[in-house]
Amino acid sequence: MLTESGGSIEIVAHEHALVIVLSGSFDFSDRNELDPVWEEAARRQTRAVVVDLAAVDFGDSTLLNWLIAGLRLQQRLERVFVLAGPFHEAVDRLFTVTGLDRAITRTPTRQDALNLSKPTL
Fold first, then answer.
1. Residue 42's Cα: distance from chain center in Å?
2. Which CATH class is domain 8-112?
3. Suppose 19 and one of 12, 61, 68, 77 were both cysteines; which one would form an S-S bond, judging by CB atoms 3.0 to 4.6 Å apart?
């Protein structure tokens, strides 16, 4: 799905995780497209949610708040929540300045995030 500012959102089911792939830019005009994603994720049976931000080149407080809402929802649902990169410099700076880099697990790649979300024996 395309957003107003030209970003795109795709939801991909994997064996043990739901991957939300974002690409492009995300700002206040995209909130109506972003918000329903968490509702969809909550309906899915999964043990983990991975948000792939590798193709995101800009995000403002709308993206930041959306990620925090996702973290809280996944915690309530007792799911693993991981952000996957590599992260664009602007996105990485947003995490660092706000402290989100210490609050949410981040991995350098989607595969690393999927490996981290696998069930342990």
1. 14
2. alpha beta
3. 12
Closest of 82, 64, 63 to residue 74, by C-alpha: 82
Question: What's this model's pTM, rounded to 2 decimal places?
Answer: 0.93
Helix and strand numbers (H, E) in the chain are: 5, 5
pLDDT in tens, 24-76: 999 999 989 999 999 999 999 999 999 999 999 999 999 999 999 999 999 99
Strand 18-26 to 8-13 pairing? antiparallel
Q: 9-32: b or e for each residue (b if 16 or more CB lie within 10 Å)? A: beeeeeeebbbbbbbbbbbeebee
List the domain boundaries for the chain.
Answer: 8-112
Q: How many CB atoms are closer than 10 A to CB 44?
A: 12
